[in-house]
Structures are given as structure tokens and as C-alpha cells.
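Protein modeling request. Please complete all fields; requests missing the sequence field cannot be processed.
Requester role: graduate student
Desired output: 3D structure, C-alpha cell encoding
Chains: 1
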Amino acid sequence: DHWTTKCPYKDTLAPLQEKLTEEQRGKPLEASTAAGAAAGAGAAAGGAKTIGGKYVPPSMRDGASKGRGESMATQRKDEAATIRVTNLSEDTRESDLQELFRPFGPISRIYLAKDKITGQSKGFAFINFHRREDAARAIAGVSGFGYDHLILNVEWAKPSTQQ
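Delivered output (163 residues):
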């Protein structure tokens, strides 16, 4: 017992602690460990979260069947259908790019580089299309196109090198 003689909660928490210890003594040891193992296996199999469950090491968790380092590869965007648009004006917004490139096919993502302080465009953007053919048509259609008093340069984006 960690209770001191001057603990103000000694009288209120002592009966609760005694009740918990009686409940633990009432259960057979095998049943409590089997239930804990089943809860751990359920959590490892992707089951519902259990309160007070056992620790499940990462190698036994859901998705552990993948090889080492494979989980990050699936999260990376498909860069085959990404184009880079340069020579954009500072006033360009994502909605402007959406309107300009939507006729070529469905767009999955638009990243417009902006200055952190001013919020103005830095002059380039990356546009991800769902299909590579749509991206190729966008390059052919918009490259050299005059937009907002500037001539746009559109090319295939080079794969990012993340370490």
C-alpha cells in the first residue's frame, strides 16, 4: 500500500481497491490470461480496439504481412501523371489552375507553391491527373499558352527525391 496516514483519499479509494483485488482473486488465472491473449490477437487481426488490452508488437499488427518498407511505397502518389507548370503570375490561384486544366481530364491534386508570408504564388505549380494520357494532352494544349500576360511552360514533373 502506498497510502500515507495523511492521504485525504485513503478512505474513499481503499474500498474500491479492495473490491478490484477481490474480483481479480475470484477469476482463475488461466481465464484472465486467455482473455488477454484473445484480446491481443483480436487487436492484431484488426479487430475492435480493446480497453486495457495487451501490447501488440508492430510485427504482429494489421498490415505486418507486407515486407519491410513497403508500407511507405503505397502511400506515395503516382508521379507518372504529374505535370509542372512554370511562369505563373503571382496572382494565380488554385481555382484558376483548376479551370485551365479541367477540360483535359479529371485532376486528382493541384499544388500551387505559395510564399508563406505573403501567400502569393511563387510562379510554379504541380498538377496530378488520374491518367497519363490526360496529362500528355494538357502539356500539348497549354504549353506556350498565354495566360495572365505570361506564356506558360508546361512539362512533365521530375520524380521527387525523398530521402
